[in-house]
Amino acid sequence: MECRISDKQMSIMDKLGILTDAAKYDVACTSSGTDRNGDGTGMGNAIKAGICHSFSGDGRCISLLKILFTNECIYDCKYCINRCSNDVPRASFTPEEVCRLTIEFYRRNYIEGLFLSSGILYSPDYTMELLYRTLFKLRREYNFQGYIHVKAIPGANPELVRLTGFLADRMSVNLELPTAEGLKKLAPNKHRKNILAPMRLIQNGITESKNEVAVYRHAPSFVPAGQSTQMIIGATGESDFQLMMVAQNLYDKFSLKRVFYSAFVQVNEDKDLPALPGGPPLLREHRLYQADWLLRFYGFHAEELLDENRPNFNVLLDPKEDWALRHLECFPVEVNRADYQTLLRVPGIGVKSAQRIVKARRSANLRFGDLKKIGVVLKRALYFITCQGRMMYNTRIEEDYITRNLLSVKEKLPAEAGGMSYRQLSLFDDVRFAARQQGISQLG
């Protein structure tokens, strides 16, 4: 089956310009999560900490080539710039062109891996076969052993998805919108069942592969870096509580590595799309990422953070501070005796600092000066902890008092010249990525 090329007069660089720009709204492409060396017969390897950026068309050295195979699409999703009813420049790569780009960019040390997604060309099966052929050619003919993240196409033949999984390091299936009702309204060609089916297939494949590798050392790996997904937030009316419950269910039922939250950007005019006078809901996106961190690493559950009576996060406080202020009966915590899980619930104490506290107190009682050296953010933690039975200052355990003091501590949020703003996570912009990661890391 040959790829339809409606852009035969375009150079490969012209296509690259169109198809990198078309991929910028897909944020689900952080690529850490696997540490796999090449076998010495090909080029490249996948190092867990080495691939965490993307390639930029303006020449900045970012290490992940992020492209669409095609921005042609048979679907008419109301929120998508590539919807079939839009009059935008269209382009399609061939499998050979994607391979050539990846290899040539790798040889020039521009990239270390590939993120490949696609619009739907002709049909899900046709598109998935093209993605499979591309990865097969890149792995087998070009001997590329670097990192590859590819999107599985909902509705495609399960066997094509399975075969592709043996060639990719990570796969993802975009949930798109949090609820079936939202999909029906804004993406009528897409169905929740078709989206969840490949997620389940990938999950089962990962489990089977791990079992086989445990028995047969050289058994082929299936999606060794796991799977992820992306939800658009703000395009439909779901509350933060609904979003968090969806995310928790995805983690619990499909063993996802990551759920990405993409603030809705209005690129189309449509009566069913919300008006955004203040721009994309990027601060909301930021709080959801912080809350997601609590689900994945801090032992929280969605129903602890929010409920039906209080369905949205306080945008002025990070979710852990907000939780602590509503549960002051749990504080103060004595850092020299509290268990690890309790320490994780203290604002200002992160995973690493909690681990260091548990280790350090085996040999001596810790004081506030020791906590600062360990990495505890005392300007947040001091309202919730004691050392040897004493608080750092004469502090009242009162919600209003602590709230006022926490709000006076300026949280580092993504900024831009000319004032404070909250910008959408984009792996096409290494400055934005670093700022967003810095903001998220303040959750402790």
From TrEMBL:
<dbReference type="InterPro" id="IPR058240">
    <property type="entry name" value="rSAM_sf"/>
</dbReference>
<dbReference type="Pfam" id="PF12836">
    <property type="entry name" value="HHH_3"/>
</dbReference>
<dbReference type="InterPro" id="IPR007197">
    <property type="entry name" value="rSAM"/>
</dbReference>
<dbReference type="InterPro" id="IPR023874">
    <property type="entry name" value="DNA_rSAM_put"/>
</dbReference>
<keyword id="KW-0411">Iron-sulfur</keyword>
<dbReference type="InterPro" id="IPR013785">
    <property type="entry name" value="Aldolase_TIM"/>
</dbReference>
<protein>
    <submittedName>
        <fullName>DNA modification/repair radical SAM protein</fullName>
    </submittedName>
</protein>
<keyword id="KW-0949">S-adenosyl-L-methionine</keyword>
<dbReference type="InterPro" id="IPR051675">
    <property type="entry name" value="Endo/Exo/Phosphatase_dom_1"/>
</dbReference>
<keyword id="KW-0479">Metal-binding</keyword>
<keyword id="KW-0408">Iron</keyword>
<dbReference type="InterPro" id="IPR010994">
    <property type="entry name" value="RuvA_2-like"/>
</dbReference>
